[in-house]
């Protein structure tokens, strides 16, 4: 039997005083505001709905919640196209509603994290309108270029380069009024800001300061790798080379984005933002920066800092999203866990992400039989844990027809392939109970269809069930508050191809061991490989025949397919 073992000593309490600032072991919960809770019956989630449900987050054991964009927007990309960075989208409420949400959250000891979208604005933003008009102050706020002459028609202009948008097609859009092309890494309604203009850099820092002064506890920063593009060579932007990943010339993956993503200047920009965050961090109350980047791990490690400058508190760890799927085994899980832990700079904090508003849901990607298993793995690893709303009850993707699709990533394709790109299936309304629209809204026709499974899969049902995903999730967050999980060492092992164990130890405290059979067959584990003392079943997955509190009889345990549990080794007194 092949055994992979990895051991990380997080903190020797007897010798080192660990800095446990709130964020270092935080349970962060992502809210997609449009789909969380509708308070006024228009079928769209809003700020007052979120405020209404904050006690639910507190009861779960959440430390901080991150809201996807709530700022004023034409909603071409559902808030990621911002027309006013300092105002609230009217569908979601008012600034007074936000202030009330922030006050209520802080009274409940919940921290509030907003979404910062720095790469672009809406094409309806005042800055862009002034840039179009040639206002000297804003002329170069965006990336403009006159384009190339069309050899076949001198009256026509061609895009400056072959660069592609993340939402299909050219990343360049001709603007008739200005008579130039502008760059848009995403939808054409999302023109890229020009970070080679210091006025842009300072303007965006001031946006951060505006909200930090209001008392928000941090930001998740969107699409960081896209901030910079190479500068023109002799006035022309060079083309990117083909990637070989797809034959579809309209798809973003058709090109290798080495000229438009992950440029060195991006990391330096992260360091500059950290300085802004630190202006507002005092008395142990860190304002946290989370950064989104699907980048190579060596680049992500630079985001943390360079030994002289500090950077992101938590560059999102998407490696388990990118590299794991329904066919992955324990060896794959172990490899991706250790990839991050082994690369982690000294003093930095790991983070674990398995789902978000851009990805299909865990229950759909890995199967509903693995929901507890995935949550147990993620929640017993050291550092920050991020949960996308609905993962705690095992929500799954909802099929959204071409006619009902609203996500530009899907709508910019065609009826034959839209489902490959659409993010709508994971953005459907939260399932609170079995009433109209799953308790999300009194409106029977919300902005996206509700899951047909909502009467069986919802918060109310799982709160009253003897055993449920929700109850297991709540217990996992309670477990994360123990000293062992907050300060202890971590050891990950594989036992054959399909069984993974995670052992958390701390001298003088109970030991906790997560055991997960990721595969479809019965497997066995010799517990002597990980622990020599008495063990008790502490938390077991929904379908397990074991019961919490049962004593483990003998060193050899057999696991049913997809079974997972957490064992407790009581400290010897």
What does this protein structure show overall?
It holds the Pfam family Alpha-amylase. Keywords: Glycoprotein, Glycosidase, Hydrolase, Signal. By secondary structure, the protein is of the alpha/beta class. Among the domains are: 22-119 and 197-228 and 263-474, Glycosidases (TIM Barrel, Alpha-Beta Barrel); 126-183, Oligo-1,6-glucosidase, domain 2 (Alpha-Beta Complex), CATH 3.90.400.10. The chain has helices at residues 33-36, 47-52, 54-60, 95-107, 126-132, 198-214, 264-279, 297-304, 319-323, 330-343, 362-365, 371-379, 408-411, 418-421, 459-464, 469-479, 483-487, and strands spanning 5-8, 27-31, 64-67, 71-72, 84-88, 111-116, 144-145, 148-150, 153-158, 172-175, 180-183, 218-221, 288-291, 314-315, 351-353, 384-388, 489-495, 499-505, 511-517, 523-526, 536-540, 556-559, 564-569. Strands 14-13-12-6-3-2-16-15 form an eight-stranded parallel beta sheet. Helix 12 (371-379) runs parallel beside helix 16. The longest helix has 17 residues, at 198-214. The protein starts with a strand and ends with a strand. 49% of the residues are buried. Residues 11-19 have low confidence and may be disordered.
Give the tags.
single chain, 573 residues, alpha/beta, TIM Barrel, Oligo-1,6-glucosidase, domain 2, 17 helices, 23 strands, globular
List the helices and strands and how they pair.
Elements: E1 5-8, E2 27-31, H1 33-36, H2 47-52, H3 54-60, E3 64-67, E4 71-72, E5 84-88, H4 95-107, E6 111-116, H5 126-132, E7 144-145, E8 148-150, E9 153-158, E10 172-175, E11 180-183, H6 198-214, E12 218-221, H7 264-279, E13 288-291, H8 297-304, E14 314-315, H9 319-323, H10 330-343, E15 351-353, H11 362-365, H12 371-379, E16 384-388, H13 408-411, H14 418-421, H15 459-464, H16 469-479, H17 483-487, E17 489-495, E18 499-505, E19 511-517, E20 523-526, E21 536-540, E22 556-559, E23 564-569
Helix pairs in contact: 12-16
């Amino acid at each position: 039997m092949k055994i992979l073992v990895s051991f990380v000593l997080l903190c020797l309490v007897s010798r080192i005083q660990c800095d446990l600032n709130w964020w270092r072991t935080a349970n962060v919960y992502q809210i997609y505001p449009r789909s969380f809770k509708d308070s006024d019956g228009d079928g769209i989630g809003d700020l007052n709905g979120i405020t209404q449900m904050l006690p639910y987050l507190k009861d779960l054991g959440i430390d901080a919640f991150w809201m996807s964009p709530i700022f004023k927007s034409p909603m071409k990309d559902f808030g990621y196209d911002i027309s006013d960075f300092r105002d609230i989208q009217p569908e979601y409420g008012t600034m007074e509603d936000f202030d009330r949400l922030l006050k209520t959250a802080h009274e409940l000891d919940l921290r509030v994290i907003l979404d910062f979208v720095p790469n672009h604005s809406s094409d309806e933003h005042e800055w862009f309108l002034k840039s179009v008009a040639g206002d000297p102050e804003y002329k170069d706020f965006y990336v403009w270029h006159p384009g190339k002459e069309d050899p076949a028609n001198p009256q026509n202009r061609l895009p400056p380069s072959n660069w592609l948008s993340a939402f299909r097609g050219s990343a360049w859009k001709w603007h008739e009024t200005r008579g130039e092309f502008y760059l848009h890494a995403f939808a054409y309604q999302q023109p890229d800001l020009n970070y080679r203009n210091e006025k842009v850099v300072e303007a965006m820092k001031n946006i951060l300061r505006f909200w930090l002064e209001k008392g928000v506890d941090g930001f998740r920063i969107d699409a960081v790798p896209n901030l910079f593009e190479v500068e023109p060579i002799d006035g022309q932007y060079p083309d990117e080379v083909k990637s070989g990943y797809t034959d579809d010339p309209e798809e973003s993956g058709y090109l290798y984005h080495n000229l438009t993503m992950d440029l060195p200047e991006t990391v330096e920009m992260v360091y500059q933002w950290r300085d802004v965050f630190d202006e507002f961090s005092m008395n142990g109350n860190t304002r946290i920066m989370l950064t989104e980047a699907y980048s190579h791990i060596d680049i992500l490690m630079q985001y943390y800092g360079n030994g002289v400058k500090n950077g992101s508190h938590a560059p999102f760890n998407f490696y388990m999203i990118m590299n794991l799927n329904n066919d992955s085994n324990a060896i794959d899980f172990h490899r991706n866990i250790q990839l991050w832990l082994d690369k982690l700079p000294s003093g930095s904090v790991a983070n674990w992400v398995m789902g978000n508003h851009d990805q299909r849901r865990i229950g759909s990607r890995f199967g509903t039989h693995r929901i507890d298993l995935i949550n147990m793995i993620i929640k017993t690893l050291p550092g920050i844990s991020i949960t996308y709303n609905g993962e705690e009850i095992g929500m799954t993707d909802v099929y959204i027809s071409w006619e009902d699709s609203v996500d530009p990533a899907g709508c910019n394709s065609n009826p034959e392939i839209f489902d490959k790109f659409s993010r709508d299936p994971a953005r459907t309304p939260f399932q609170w109970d079995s009433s109209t629209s799953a308790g999300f809204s009194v409106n029977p026709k919300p902005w996206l269809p509700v899951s047909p499974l909502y009467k069986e899969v919802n918060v109310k049902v799982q709160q009253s069930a003897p055993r449920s995903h929700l109850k297991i999730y709540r217990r996992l967050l309670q477990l994360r508050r123990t000293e062992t999980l907050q300060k202890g060492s971590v050891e990950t092992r594989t036992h054959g191809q399909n069984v993974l164990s995670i052992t958390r130890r701390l001298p003088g405290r109970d030991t906790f061991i997560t055991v997960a059979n990721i595969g479809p067959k019965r497997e066995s584990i010799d517990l002597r490989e990980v622990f020599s003392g008495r063990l008790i079943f502490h938390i077991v997955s929904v379908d397990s025949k074991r019961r919490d509190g049962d004593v483990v009889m003998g060193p050899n345990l057999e696991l049913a397919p997809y079974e997972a549990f957490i064992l407790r080794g009581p400290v010897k007194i």
